[in-house]
Amino acid sequence: MSIQIVLATANPDKMIEIEEILRANLSNEVELIARPSEIPDVEETGETLYENALLKADAICAATKLICVSDDTGLFVEALDGAPGVYSARYAGEDARYEDNVAKLLRALDGEANRRAQFRTVAVAKFPDGRELACVGEVDGTIALAPAGTDGFGYDPVFVPDEGGGRSFAELSLAEKHEISHRGRALRGLSSMMTRALTG
């Protein structure tokens, strides 16, 4: 009998990445399902990535009575004192498009020599019995002067990971990105913790 796990994200781009990473790292007996459409968005009122990930996991676990996997991700730029950070998805406004956020970031860094940045993901699993697991994934890199590449989403065209051979996330294949990305690292770690929790 399969174990159902509901994914909290409503972002279709994140959904693709999360599904692919979890399917590669969890047992075949696990069935991943999308968040039911009748469950409304959970307001991200937390001050940290962990708080926001847990808010989503708690709400959707309670609504579905299923194990829920949630994540929250931020881009932390040194020269901007860590901005956009927890507000990365809405850096240019509540309804900002990916392109709007990237354009605002590049404007904020115009003429700035220090373009160091870190992508960070906190992934959380919440169980109906109250158990909670969390794992952090990080990747360091720099912000490019201009977007490059057509794959990925969000800030991927301007984030050049240190381990990417000079290419932006948007220039890497999905497999290459998963291997070194913040989300890949967080979800692989969470998968190991979940496997132990489900089989222990």
Features:
single chain, 200 residues, alpha/beta, seven-stranded mixed sheet, globular
* Distance between the ends: 17 Å
Gross morphology is: globular
Question: If you consult CATH, what is the topology?
Answer: Maf protein
Which architecture does the CATH hierarchy give at level 2? Alpha-Beta Complex
Summarize the structure.
The protein is an alpha/beta fold and 200 residues long.
Could you characterize what this model shows?
It is a single chain. The chain has one domain (3-199): Maf protein (Alpha-Beta Complex). The model has no long low-confidence stretch (mean pLDDT 95). It is built from 5 helices and 7 strands; from the N terminus they run βαβαββαβββαα. Strands 1, 2, 3, 4, 5, 6 and 7 form a 7-stranded mixed β-sheet that branches. The longest helix is centred in the last third of the chain and has 18 residues, at 182-199. A hairpin with a 5-residue loop joins strand 5 (116-126) and strand 6 (132-143). Helix 1 packs across helix 5 (182-199) and helix 4 packs across helix 5. With 200 residues, it is α/β, with parallel strands linked by helices.
Which SSEs are present, and which pair or pack?
Layout: E1 3-7, H1 12-25, E2 30-34, H2 49-64, E3 67-77, E4 84-85, H3 98-108, E5 116-126, E6 132-143, E7 159-161, H4 174-180, H5 182-199
Parallel strand pairs: 1-2, 1-3
Antiparallel strand pairs: 3-4, 3-5, 5-6, 6-7
